[in-house]
Write a sequence for this structure.
């Protein structure tokens, strides 16, 4: 179970990085401000999920004890 949550957390961290880069590229190209805002909101949501999965993986594995 811990391996599954660890892999899931890594996937979500990659998604966070991908959405962050897309949002930054959109802002640098002077794209639609609304789209940049939605991408940053999505980044925050994905980041919260990633942190929760990391905490779950640590809790399941015993937190390094």
């Amino acid at each position: 179970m811990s391996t599954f949550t660890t892999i899931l957390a890594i996937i979500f961290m990659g998604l966070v990085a991908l959405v962050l880069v897309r949002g930054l590229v959109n802002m640098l190209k002077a794209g639609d401000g609304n789209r940049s805002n939605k991408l940053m909101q999505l980044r925050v949501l994905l980041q919260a999920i990633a942190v929760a999965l990391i905490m779950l993986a640590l809790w399941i594995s015993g937190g390094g004890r």
Remarks:
- The radius of gyration is 15 Å.
- The CA atoms of residues 19 and 41 lie 10 Å apart.
- The chain is about 85% helix and 0% strand.
